[in-house]
Design brief:
Blueprint: H1 4-11, E1 14-19, H2 23-34, H3 47-51, H4 76-79, H5 82-92, E2 97-106, H6 114-120, E3 125-127, E4 140-148, E5 167-172, E6 183-185, E7 200-205, E8 208-212, E9 218-222, E10 224-226, E11 232-237, E12 242-244, E13 255-263, H7 273-279
Parallel strand pairs: 2-4
Antiparallel strand pairs: 1-11, 2-13, 3-4, 4-12, 5-11, 5-13, 6-10, 6-12, 7-8, 8-9
Helix pairs in contact: 1-7
């Protein structure tokens, strides 16, 4: 019989563990992470330095240039947790792989130079990497991200792994309330598979969204906000719609979290829970094209951030 986690991933597209990890270990990790650099306005390029860049590509962490590489021992609290490992083994099978793991930072408004505020105004995906000094791009910095699917970064040909098996594991490292850029998820939206970003969404009640796929099918989803304390863990399918609003604190508080992207290994030919989950999805799982909002330099050519309206 499938576990509760596997059933939730199938029916709703996500599973919430809650605050399952040691608060002491997570607190120690957070303290060490925040001591490594000056998290604040000094992270940003000058306007002149930015203007010398050719494009917006390759401004995010990768496996080698990655802030988390210095915290291998501390990350064991996540990576060796038996409950998380049991779910991932059931869903993705033995020998599942980490595609990428990284720290993600929600940036408060006062960090932003005025010229950056103008650049990202009403942008769907306010990824701040292109505006950050190169030595600090080993973290993903953001200022609210519109509803999207994590398969957005993995069109056909972008990886040797099977993107239809990708899952996202997300960990809060401190208290995240409604002002701290918590995750918003739309349950059940994974059922239409991959759809083109920006997605066809319309709010028709305060917390209810109408979602239409690229073929005209439509469903309603209730916006679910994920708040929690240190060690809060969530897991979701790569076609689940989710997003964040900007950090709204006027203090120096920022949001720092962990994000793991995980996949079934190519060496595993056994049927696992992810294969059964994907059989119930009515849509493509290996898209050739995932987005239409960027120009050839990787800059936003379509604006209109609906999660903030």
């Amino acid at each position: 019989m499938p576990s509760t986690a596997a059933k939730n991933l199938d029916m709703q597209g996500f599973h919430i563990y809650g605050e399952i990890l040691s608060k002491d270990c997570i607190g120690d990790l957070f303290k060490k992470m925040t001591a490594t650099r000056d998290f604040g306005p000094n992270l940003f390029l000058s306007k002149q330095e930015y203007s010398r860049q050719q494009n917006h590509f390759n401004t995010n962490p990768n496996a080698e240039f990655n802030f988390l590489n210095q915290f291998s021992n501390e990350l064991a609290v996540v990576e060796k947790d038996k409950r998380i490992d049991a779910t991932l083994t059931e869903v993705l099978g033995q020998g599942y792989e980490v595609v990428i793991k990284k720290a993600v930072c929600g940036v408060p408004e006062f960090w932003l130079p005025a010229w950056v505020k103008e650049k990202i105004d009403n942008v769907n995906v306010a990824n701040l990497g292109p505006y950050i000094k190169k030595e600090y791009r080993d973290i993903t910095y953001f200022r609210g991200i519109d509803f999207h699917q994590d398969i957005i970064d993995w069109p056909a040909g972008s990886t040797d792994l099977d993107p239809s098996t990708f899952l996202t594991l997300y960990v809060y490292l401190h208290d995240v309330d409604r002002y701290d850029s918590p995750l918003h998820i739309l349950p059940g939206t994974h059922r239409y598979g991959s759809t083109l970003f920006p997605h066809k969404l319309k709010r028709h009640e305060e917390n209810t969204w109408s979602y239409k796929d690229d073929c005209g099918k439509c469903l309603d989803a209730i916006d679910t906000t994920l708040t929690g304390g240190p060690g809060f863990v969530g897991l979701w399918h790569n076609c689940l719609l989710h997003g964040t609003q900007p950090v709204k604190h006027e203090s120096e508080k920022f949001r720092l979290s962990l994000r793991y992207l995980l996949a079934k290994s190519n060496t595993n030919n056994e049927q696992t829970a992810i294969d059964n989950i994907n059989k119930n999805i009515d849509g493509t799982l290996r898209p050739i094209r995932t987005r239409r909002d960027l120009d050839k330099l990787g800059k936003a050519k379509i604006k209109g951030n609906i999660i903030n309206k």
